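Troubleshooting entry. The earlier prediction with calcium ion gave an output that would not parse, so I re-checked the input for stray whitespace and re-submitted. Clean input:
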Amino acid sequence: MGIISTSAAATPFTATWDLISVSYDDPQSGTASTGSNTGTNNGGTAGTGTSTGSGTATGTGNGTSTGSGTTGGTTGGTSGSSGNQPTDIVVIEVEDHTDSIGNGTHQWVAGSKPGASGASRVTTPNSGALKPTNSGTPMMSYNATFASSGVYLVWMRGWGDTDSIGRGHNDSVHVGINGVLANATAMDEFPPQWSWSNSTRQHGAAKIIVPSAGVHTINVWMREDGLEIDKVVFKKEGSAGSTDAPTGLGPN
Ligand SMILES: [Ca+2]
Ligand SMILES: [Ca+2]
């Protein structure tokens, strides 16, 4: 037992302690191993490698402990570099539609605009129309190939009129798949500059559900007229960066 005391402060204190000593043997012991593996990756180049590891571990604990041993080799080889992996991103220039159907008063119209991706952007005559569903509203359709089934986040690049408190009259659009409008109803939040949105009026992320790998029809319907749209990107939910807005013109 030890004793320590001080009178430097106004209130002296006294502390005591016990010395504790612990010792043990570290059971690590062994012989070096040699590892090797050969990795293959679809579309990639196989990687091969061999590594041998050895070492001695020494530790000092509270008290004294000394262990020694030899650690086996680490896993050898790196897997092959990736080749042409299936992508979790589908990109559509909205002016590249396979079909465009108007409703008598409105029709999607392509035209140039500074800063647009690809050949142009697309808009509708701005006369105050609002279509809350996909019924009786201009539609464009596209054939899009998806690598796998699942939920995809919808990112739309547009130029609208959303103001600083979220109001606008030319700043919403519907997106669906195979003719069905569901979780990408009333995409909004398009300020008067090129920007990407994944938002809906219901304040959830805009999504589509892709039922199977392969080609499906993507539909874009007018909601509020006058919105200018440029490009739409689908990112598989859970894939790297799926919740990050594309930047600039977005991927090609
Ligand atoms: Ca409008
Ligand atoms: Ca475009």
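This one parsed fine. The radius of gyration is 31 Å.
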